[in-house]
């Protein structure tokens, strides 16, 4: 399978899951560490519009802001560092993720908006929480908050809100996800 190149100034849906559908996060500590690694390896290389960490998979909507080779290497470093730490912590060996991380190039603003909604509402769609707005490991709370938390992944909030015209529309469309048919999409 030929992997999509990560071209500068383009948007992508980045996602993957655990090998054989198994867990890649067994605790909140694992999720927090993964977010720290995102900050370490992806800062100044991609602009993050949305993310969500679930027990057996993750999603990100990003814009590439550096050259492809540097960004691809940064993602590789992130996933390798996390897998090594996870394996050590949980006394396991071998691959943690299914093959290479998946990436879909996004060429349309409507698709990008729907993807952001899909990512932020993913925990509710999977039954992990009754209300996606309260889920700690997605970008929704950071996007609607006035300022970035010091321990969260920096979100391109202004750009995200502008995609939805304003914060009120961002929140409204997230609440309407079922009427948009986003609960039936299968990007996982």
Automatic annotation (TrEMBL):
InterPro entries for this protein: Transposase_17, Transposase_17_sf
Superkingdom of origin organism: Bacteria
Pfam families registered for this protein in UniProt: Y1_Tnp
Residue ranges constituting the Transposase IS200-like domain according to the UniProt record: 7-122
The name this protein goes by in its record: Transposase
Source organism (scientific name): Arenibacter arenosicollis
């Amino acid at each position: 399978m030929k992997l999509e190149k990560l071209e500068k100034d383009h948007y992508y849906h980045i996602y993957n899951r655990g090998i054989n559908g198994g867990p890649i996060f067994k605790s909140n500590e694992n999720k927090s560490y993964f977010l720290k690694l995102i900050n370490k390896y992806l800062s100044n290389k991609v602009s993050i519009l949305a993310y969500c960490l679930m027990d057996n998979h993750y999603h990100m909507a990003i814009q590439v802001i550096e050259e492809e080779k540097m960004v691809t290497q940064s993602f590789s470093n992130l996933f390798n560092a996390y897998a090594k730490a996870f394996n050590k912590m949980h006394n396991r060996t071998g691959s943690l993720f299914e093959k290479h991380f998946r990436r879909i190039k996004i060429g349309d603003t409507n698709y990008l908006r729907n993807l952001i909604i899909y990512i932020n509402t993913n925990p509710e769609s999977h039954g992990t929480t009754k209300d996606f707005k309260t889920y700690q490991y997605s970008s929704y709370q950071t996007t609607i908050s006035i300022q970035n938390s010091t321990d969260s992944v920096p979100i391109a909030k202004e750009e995200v809100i502008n995609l939805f015209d304003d914060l009120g529309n961002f929140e409204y469309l997230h609440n309407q996800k079922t009427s948009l048919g986003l609960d039936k999409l299968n990007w996982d």
